[in-house]
Write a structure and sequence with these properties.
Radius of gyration of chain B: 19 Å
Mean pLDDT of chain A: 88
Strand content of chain A: 25-35%
Largest sheet of chain B: 5 strands, parallel
CATH class of the largest domain in chain B: Alpha Beta
Low-confidence stretches of chain A: 3-8
Number of domains of chain B: 2
Largest sheet of chain A: 5 strands, antiparallel
Number of helices of chain A: 3
Number of strands of chain A: 8
Oligomer: heterodimer
Number of helices of chain B: 11
CATH architecture of the largest domain in chain A: 2-Layer Sandwich
Radius of gyration of chain A: 17 Å
Shape of chain A: elongated
CATH architecture of the largest domain in chain B: 3-Layer(aba) Sandwich
Number of strands of chain B: 9
Helix content of chain A: 10-25%
Strand order of the largest sheet of chain A: 2-3-1-4-5
Distance between the termini of chain B: 23 Å
Shape of chain B: globular
Helix content of chain B: 25-40%
CATH topology of the largest domain in chain B: Rossmann fold
Largest interface: A-B, 18 and 17 residues
Structural class of chain B: alpha/beta
Structural class of chain A: mainly beta
Strand content of chain B: 15-25%
Mean pLDDT of chain B: 93
Low-confidence stretches of chain B: none
Chain lengths: ~150, ~300
């Protein structure tokens, strides 16, 4: 039996993207961060699928060859696998990493930070501790909320 | 892209040592440097009040034969009309060769540097960084002690919001065999991230105490700070904590005879004026050093060798 067999019957996609190995329960967060509600193609969210590796996992299937913000995805869950499907075939499998730099993904919570009083500035965060997943604002060095 | 000084970590230890070396040479041979920046212009953009920092930058540039333009409060700039930091700095970069900038918002010099093709020096951004004060402190310790290794330094007062403390701890953590003692009320302790990143990661030992009297006898350098009213959102907290530590001649009886007392100034009452007569009071010498290290920095960022 395939490791990540999905027992629900979800139509397979022809040209699109499958986000696999999403930490169980995080799929809606990803759906919102990536603004998938703006797409007019089919988007399937599978929650709590059985996984030998993770126990439970979420999966998102997007039936359109969209460009996804891998920086955002890596920040939310670096364990996600991005599968690119063309003509119903898996053509590329991308493994994510914690990005070293985040631009306009999160905002600084320090009320004294210049990005709060000048919100048109890009919100830039730099990875300061990969183990603890700590990002600091490039302007004021305040740590982000994880 | 122009070289900036936004945070003390922008400088390598070798660069800091070289700046100190140049500053010492300027002190010994001021005439040699008096025309080094002829026809160069420094813009001092001070969006919040300052006495020492602004005047020391201006004095530094004048001492190098350059000239100075700028403003000393946000109300006398287009900020009052809602102009962004980026646009103000972009405008000024059309007139000047180098900018020294103070701003109440943390990270404003970093934002400014994105819009600017001339060097920017952070002259203080809220409670965040004040790298030229750190350079001043390093030059002072170097001159007082003959080097930057092998001593015990006590930081006293507001260690939570005191940006000069954070930057100096970070800079000194690069040197050898320095013992750090942090003296503060519980509410104003050094932030954990400063301890983690500057000291713990490098395995540098430190102690924390609430008693200035107990810590004093072991210190070679005492770095006093003011509890800064402008850093508190709540006036009650400021009033409760502002008189936590006051250094007096009586407290100094048990201190070492070669102690150096530093303070970034301005002081309110945390160092009694009676201490000014004590030869261990190094803070007025520190003020003077601020001009010389800024001269060295301006030369460096403008790429001028003398």
């Amino acid at each position: 039996m395939k490791e990540d067999l999905i027992i629900m019957n979800i139509d397979s996609i022809h040209d699109g993207v499958v986000l696999d190995h999403i930490q169980a329960g995080k799929s809606m967060e990803i759906y919102n961060y990536l603004h998938l509600d703006k797409l007019d193609c089919s988007v399937a969210i599978i929650k709590n699928a059985r996984s030998a590796r993770q126990g439970k996992k979420d999966i998102i299937k997007i039936d359109s060859p969209v460009e996804l913000d891998l920086e955002v995805l890596g920040y939310i869950d670096p364990g996600i696998t991005v599968n690119i499907i063309r003509d119903s075939e898996l053509v590329e499998k991308k493994r994510l990493q914690l990005p070293t730099r985040l631009t306009n993904v999160i905002r600084c919570r320090n009320p004294r930070c210049i990005t709060v009083s000048e919100p048109q500035l890009d919100a830039i965060f730099l990875l300061s501790d990969a183990e603890k997943r700590t990002y600091r604002c490039a302007y004021c060095e305040t740590a982000s909320d994880n | 892209m122009a070289r900036n000084l936004i945070d003390i970590v922008d400088l390598t230890t070798e660069e800091i040592d070289r700046l100190i070396e140049v500053a010492e040479d300027i002190i010994e041979n001021p005439v040699k440097y008096q025309d080094a920046c002829a026809h160069k212009q420094l813009a001092t953009l001070f969006f919040e009040p300052s006495t020492r920092t602004r005047l020391s930058f201006e004095s530094a540039m004048l001492g190098l034969g350059g000239s100075v333009l700028g403003f000393s409060s946000a109300s006398s700039s287009s900020t009052a009309k809602g102009e962004t930091v980026g646009d103000t700095v972009h405008t000024v970069s059309c007139y000047a060769d180098i900018i020294a900038m103070r701003h109440p918002k943390e990270g404003a010099p970093y934002a400014a540097a994105q819009h600017c093709n001339i060097p920017i020096i952070n002259a203080g951004d809220g409670g965040h960084c004040h790298p030229t004060q750190t350079l001043t402190d390093l030059l002072t310790i170097h001159r007082e002690r003959g080097g930057l290794n092998n001593f015990t330094i006590g930081f006293c007062g507001d260690l939570k919001f005191g940006r000069t403390v954070h930057s100096l701890v970070n800079a000194l953590s690069r040197y050898e065999n320095i013992n750090f003692v942090f003296i503060s009320p519980e509410e104003l302790k050094l932030p954990r991230y400063v301890k983690e990143e500057a000291l713990k990661k490098k395995g540098i030992p430190y102690t924390q105490t609430t008693s200035l009297e107990e810590a004093l006898p072991q210190l070679d350098v005492l770095y006093m700070t003011r509890v800064q009213k402008e850093r508190f959102f709540n006036e009650e907290d400021y009033i409760r904590l502002k008189d936590s530590y006051i250094l007096t001649p009586e407290k100094l009886v048990n201190a070492k005879s070669d102690l150096s007392i530093l303070h970034p100034l301005p002081r309110v009452n945390e160092i009694s004026v009676a201490v000014d007569q004590d030869p261990r009071a190094a803070y007025w010498r520190q003020v003077k050093n601020g001009k010389f290290i800024r001269m060295a920095l301006i030369l460096k960022l403008l790429g001028i060798e003398v």
